[in-house]
Amino acid sequence: xxxxxxxxxxxxxxxxxxxxxxxxxxxxxxxxxxxxxxxxxxxxxxxxxxxxxxxxxxxxxxxxxxxxxxxxxxxxxxxxxxxxxxxxxxxxxxxxxxxxxxxxxxxxxxxxxxxx
Amino acid sequence: xxxxxxxxxxxxxxxxxxxxxxxxxxxxxxxxxxxxxxxxxxxxxxxxxxxxxxxxxxxxxxxxxxxxxxxxxxxxxxxxxxxxxxxxxxxxxxxxxxxxxxxxxxxxxxxx
Lengths: 116, 112
Hints:
Shape of chain A: globular
Largest interface: A-B, 26 and 26 residues
Largest sheet of chain A: 7 strands, mixed
Oligomer: heterodimer
Structural class of chain B: mainly beta
Low-confidence stretches of chain B: none
Number of helices of chain B: 0
Number of strands of chain B: 12
Radius of gyration of chain B: 13 Å
Structural class of chain A: mainly beta
Order of helices and strands of chain B: EEEEEEEEEEEE
Distance between the termini of chain A: 37 Å
Shape of chain B: globular
Mean pLDDT of chain B: 93
């Protein structure tokens, strides 16, 4: 199946700094990527949809200026958490959707962000 | 709207026990249904899927049947192993669009 590679798998940063998370589709082109946030013992919350060559679409309640999403090419989407605070600590997962209704999505390995 | 409801966990079983994790959905049209598994500290992996009514998805001993009459997609396994301990997510994909709608997830713990 298709492979989505997410990097880094974990990161610790200081409050006030910014962190970039990369999501690459290794063997296919992804015009769309979904970014999710997952709190401990909870389900995935869709944050935004990145679209190659255009602005990302954010879900209601997600701060666009806090979570910057860029989809620079057909194989790379990035999420930058700006001016991170401890409450931004979470598990972030990217996903490339299957293009048809009967095809599954492919997920990155996830990034554990800890802001201290 | 579209939604997925899963049984609450955690579910704790002994090795070789029978597993059922209930999943029901609400959706218009004809969605596809999926079960994903998440091991600690990792992303989600597709476990199985079914794309139309009465389809049975199966993988690694797990099975689920798409029941349109009861809007259900329950996950079953006849004999669980310790290595099956993970979080299981039921999800649907609407007939139009490519977003997944996830259930809350069910933690499974299997004791030896």
